[in-house]
Amino acid sequence: MGESNWQIDRRTVLEGIGIGAVGLAGATNVQAASTVQDGEVTITAVWTDDEEEDFLAVVDYAEEETGLDISYAPRDTEALLTTTLMDYEVETATADIVVIPMEGRVRRDAEAGHLEPVGDLWDEEDYTTDHATVTVNDEVYAAPFGGDLKPGFWYRESFFDEHDLEEPEDYDQFLDLLAEIDGIEGVEAPLASGNGDGWPLSDITEAFILRQEDGHELQVDLIEGEAEFTDDRVATAFEELQELHQEGYFSEVRDFGIQYEFFWANETPLYFMGSWTPAFGAIEDPEDLNYFMLPGAEAMVTSINWFTIPAYVDDVDAAKDAAEAIISAEGQEIWTERGGFVPTAVDVPEEAYELDVMRDLTQEADEVELVPDLDDALGDPFQAEFWSQLLGFWAEPDQEIQPILETLDDALQESAGADDEV
């Protein structure tokens, strides 16, 4: 891959941002096989609970626009990734549309011949990303739907007001804030440790990489395979995380959705999470939310949910019609108005966004660099190894860091090398 693949245009900041939802929550592993009847389209993705309801509102719009009967079956992330891979190997479509939140996986599926080209469904000028991100051999194999920003630590303004706390302006102030919060009665630990097979522990780890010198360039270089995971700056990021662990500043690891309940109860008052946070059910009053970036970081991670069409579907044209309606500005506006969404369609009107905190996020995103999600961009084997190593690191934070970095570097170079061949 060339550097142009990761050149994020200022359109990526969006002309306005709502509240995103990648919602990698656990879900019932419901089978959504490819359609066998004309006029029916099946979709599978990771949205469940409130996010599923929001997505189904978009599906209703697409059905009205296309006259198609569109059904949706959610899966958790692991089931989505493993089931589709197994199905594709036997030339079966898991669903007519498979939504993959990892461009690295999209490219690998395309290279293996498992996906239909869909570049005719979207114009780069109308979206916040470009074709190159999901292009293999000059064909575009995915279409962008909702995007996410991962800005920093969310907190409740009422908690900060009650305890006279302030957002930190530098890393020393950040450490002082953690010490203050740690001494407040009822607090389990200042920092929430959310988990979903290693995600989102990966997100906070990336934030510590980004806060290092030229961190945003380091992130891109790691994705391109032009930097090693044993780089001194990566080592420093892990050492800083280790120090926070040793101070007892990280909470018990819990499912990231359940961790929101502890966050809202002010038991884990700082939660490094994405722009979908205000939409989660445990957040009883989104207007009480605010966030701050990790001091030293001058970049935010952004990611996109990609619509793909397996090469084995019965009716490619119907799947394309459904996908085109859903990813349209009109389709994305529906979820944006409901909250819990960062649209990739630039023509979603600014009036669709309601929360002040999301407007603030929009403005801040316009002032910093935007970089791809490290493990989503690289895909496996790096992603699986990254998640596994972080779970082990959170379980045993006193272990030697260098062996972790060496193991991850081997996986990173293998993943980056695989992309170079695409």
UniProtKB/TrEMBL annotation:
Entry keyword set: Transport
Record-stated family: Belongs to the bacterial solute-binding protein 1 family.
Protein name (Swiss-Prot/TrEMBL): ABC transporter substrate-binding protein
Organism for this UniProt entry: Natronosalvus hydrolyticus
